[in-house]
Amino acid sequence: MTRVEVAIVGAGFAGLGMAMALKRLGRDFVVLERAASVGGTWRDNTYPGVACDVPSHLYGFADHPNPDWSGTYATGAEIRAYLERIVEAENLQPRLRLGTAMLTAQWNADAEVWHLDSPDGAVIADALVLACGRLTEPAIPDIPGLETFPGPMFHSARWDHSTELSGARIAVVGTGASAVQLVPQLAGTAEVTLFQRTPAWIVPRGGAAYTAAERRRFATHPDELVRLRTALYAEGEARFASRSGDAAASREARGVALAHLEAQVAQPALRAALTPDYAFGCKRVLLSDDFYPALASGTVTLEASALRAVEGSTLIAASGARHDVDVLVLATGFASTRQPYADLVVGEQTTLAQHWAKGMTSFASTVVTGFPSMFVLDGPNAALGHSSSVLMIEEQVAYVIRCLDRRDSIGALRVDPVAEAAYTDEIAVAAASTPWMTGGCRNWYVDERSGRLTLLWPGTVGAFHERLARADGSEFGSPDAPVRGARRGTA
C-alpha cells in the first residue's frame, strides 16, 4: 500500500502539469498512468498526418518554452517527445507508475481519504486529481453488420501500423479533425472513400517550418519566445468572437471558409456537398490546406452521407450507394460527454457516472459535489474551441493548488451543492445564445441527455482565469479560510 497526499490519475498534459506544480511545492504525490508511457492523446494518436491545430508555441507549458518546435504546428510525435522531456527535466520519473491503471477510487468517509485500487496495490490519498483526459476512449458507431467486416478495421486513435495500405481500397468514416489530417496522407497511395455525415467548416491552416536560424534565435533569446507566445495568446482570444456567435466576426470567418472552399474545389457539385448548412462555430472549426485538394484531385471518393450498414466487405451508405473496400478506418471521435473513468469513482453516496447521469456538472470546472477533495482537470466545461487547452489546464492547476492550501486549514473539501448548481446555471446562461446551442448542428460539446453544453467553456481563457480567481472558498462553505498566494500560469 502507498500513502500519499495527492493521487493523480493520468500522465498527459493535465497530469504532468499537476505533478510539476505539486513537486515544486514539496507536496507528496504519485501519478498513476494505465499506459506504458506518458503523453495522453499524443501517445495514443499516431495516425498519418497527426498534428496539433493550435500554434506550437502556445501549446505548451508557460514554464517550459520549447525553442525547437519544427514549425508553426507541431506534429504528434513532437508533442509526445516534449512531454517526455518535461518528465526528465522535472525529475518526475520517481513519482510515475506507468502501466498502472486506476481500477477503482472510493472515498472513505471515516478516514476522509481516497482509496484507489490498482494492479500494483492500493493507494491511499488525501486528495484525488483526475487527469484522465476527455478524448481517451474511441467512440465506435452502432452500425448494423459492422462486426461482419472481414478486413482490417480500426479507429483512428488506435492506428494499426501493421496494415499494408498502399494500393488498398480504404474507407474512412467521419470528417472531423482526425479525418481531415489523415485523408490527404492516404490519398497519395491508396483508393479512399470518405463517408461524410456532415461537412465541416474549414479555414486555411497556413504556417511554415521554422528554419534552423529561427530555432537558434529562439534558444538564445528566450524573450522572443515570450513575445511570440503573448502574441499567439492574443490571436487565440480574438478568435473566440467568431466561434461564439459574434455576428460580424462570424460573418467574416464564414466568408474566409467559403472562399477557401471555392478556391480549392472547382467542381460545383462537390463544392456544394462540402458546404455546411449550419452556423459557423457550431461544430469544431477545422484547419487544413490539403484536405479539399485531396478531394478535388479525384483520388478520394466523397460519399456525402453516413455509413448505414455493413455487409461483409461492402459498406452501404445512407444514400443507398454501396462501396466495396479492403480496410475500414473509423475516424468517429470519442466518448467525450460520458467520461469512461466516471464509473470507477465512488464518492460519498454515488459514483461519478451517476452524479453526471444528466451531463457533467462541477464548480469552477474542477470540483464536484459529493466527491470531497477531488479535482477533475480538462473535464466539465474546461475545453476550448478557439485556443490552447494547455492554458486552461494551467489555470485549473493553479486553482487546485489554492484549494489544497485551503484543505490544510479546514480539512476535507466538500463542494456546496448550491455552488455547483449556480455554476452550472451560469454556464447555461452564457452558452444559451451561442452557435454551440443554436447553430443547427449536432456537436460533441453538448450532452444529448440534458441538452446542456458540458464540454466547452463558453468564454475566453482570460474570463476563465477571472472566474477561478473569484472563487473565495465559499464553494466549500468557508469563504474566510486563509489561503496562501495564487499563481497564474498562463501567458
Summarize this entry quickly.
It contains 14 helices and 20 strands.
Please give the structural blueprint.
Layout (H helix, E strand, L loop, with lengths): L1 E8 L3 H12 L4 E5 L7 H4 L31 H14 L6 E3 L5 E5 L4 E5 L5 E8 L22 E3 L13 E5 L3 H11 L3 E5 L6 E2 L8 H9 L1 H23 L2 H18 L3 H6 L12 E2 L3 H6 L3 E4 L3 E5 L2 E4 L4 E3 L2 E4 L14 E2 L5 H4 L18 E3 L12 H22 L6 H15 L3 H4 L7 E2 L4 E2 L7 H9 L22
Parallel strand pairs: 1-2, 1-6, 2-3, 4-17, 6-18, 7-16, 8-9, 8-16, 9-12, 10-11
Antiparallel strand pairs: 4-5, 5-6, 13-14, 14-15, 19-20
Describe the structure in your own words.
This protein has 491 residues and is α/β, with parallel strands linked by helices. It has helices at 13-24, 41-44, 76-89, 177-187, 212-220, 222-244, 247-264, 268-273, 291-296, 352-355, 389-410, 417-431, 435-438, 461-469, and strands spanning 2-9, 29-33, 96-98, 104-108, 113-117, 123-130, 153-155, 169-173, 191-195, 202-203, 286-287, 300-303, 307-311, 314-317, 322-324, 327-330, 345-346, 374-376, 446-447, 452-453. The chain is built from 14 helices and 20 strands. A hairpin with a 4-residue loop joins strand 4 and strand 5 (113-117). The longest helix has 23 residues, at 222-244. The model is unreliable at 481-491 (pLDDT under 50).
